[in-house]
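Translate sequence into structure tokens.
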Amino acid sequence: MRLRELDVINDCLATLGETPLNSIQQDHPLVAGALKLLRAANSRVQAQGWWFNREVVTLQPDLTTGHIALPADFLSVDPSDRQQRYSERGRRLYNLDSQSILFDTPVDVSIIRLIPFLDLPWAAQDLVRAATLVRFVESYDADELRVQQVQIDFQQTYRACNAEHTRFVQPNMLSQGGVGGRRARMRVTTGYTRGLRRF
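Result follows.
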């Protein structure tokens, strides 16, 4: 079943024994805060890079300025050629080696995109939901038992999402090899298993 923002908000409210809402437009003092936590968790979870939001793309420099504009929905950018070093400067691509934002040829990069919550695969939606709940109960002083429950839920949903990631990535690693295999393996996992503070 697909999750909606309303489902996540109601899960947050349930941790405090609040009555579920029929719409996020309803007047409730906790809705705005919960929505803010949900959208922040969506960005933080996706910034790790998963099978559904990492792409290798070719970016073209502007013929007039020589600048390369980064996509509006990007979270991070890495060179697909590990001999190159690129970063972001003011939503433009920056060459760390030449210390310049000027390019005269297309550049292949690996980008992590921010996907709207409603468009995520279900396993990723569930992980964002669980990460939101952790931050919500910490912010609104839920009882210790409830905190433990949402932390366990987060750990379980992370394992499920990571298993889905592995299922998608492994065939690419076997079939592509070389550069393709390295691209398929690219995902930052540091922090997931060290605790919940990353989110």
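Note: Strands lie at 54-59, 74-79, 86-89, 92-95, 107-113.
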